[in-house]
């Protein structure tokens, strides 16, 4: 009886307590659903409805069109090349930032996040301006027969610029957790530098590298 008397006021107080200054679950959930509906669900629904209205024959003709295949080849091909480049150089940048102390290290560390701060449209315009035939870098590459702007090579450079921070920021925290004593123990047991990297460091970094 006493427990019920104590619990009832407590529940009443919990039920009628003052609301938080931060918006509640209902408001935030409604805003999130409205945002997702307007930005994602409605455009995707229109795309699916338009594709379904074509019929399988027309859809297959469009899907196997030469322009569609070339677009897919360029998209997936450049993305694969850029990801391979970022895996190598992103891991190296993370290694340098974690294992070495040098003047300007904080500046380099901040520069890694620059693609995060720039909108993709601004980054694309800036890269196009730099690598255009009359740009600062493009006019130096043009005598060598290298045209970057408006080519698959330019797409790869843009994707490398955008994707490098994802690899660095994913690998960097995992690399900071690896104890140097493990590497020293492997070295004292006769392991070479290549064996330390491939058998000691890489197995722990592989999930982070793939995620990045």
Describe the structure in your own words.
It is a single chain. The chain is mainly α and 212 residues long. 80% of the residues lie in helices and 0% in strands. It is built from ten helices and no strands. The model is unreliable at 1-10 (pLDDT under 50).
Defining key terms:
single chain; 212 residues; mainly alpha; 80% helix
Task: Note the gap between the termini.
Answer: 59 Å
Structural class category: mainly alpha
The averaged pLDDT comes out at 81
Query: Helix count, per DSSP?
Result: 10
Question: Segments where pLDDT lies below 50 for 5+ residues?
Answer: 1-10
Helix content: over 70%
At a glance:
This protein has 212 residues and is mostly helical. It has helices at 2-15, 25-63, 66-99, 105-112, 114-117, 120-131, 138-141, 152-177, 180-188, 193-211.
SSE blueprint and pairings:
Elements: H1 2-15, H2 25-63, H3 66-99, H4 105-112, H5 114-117, H6 120-131, H7 138-141, H8 152-177, H9 180-188, H10 193-211
Helix pairs in contact: 3-8, 6-8, 8-10, 9-10
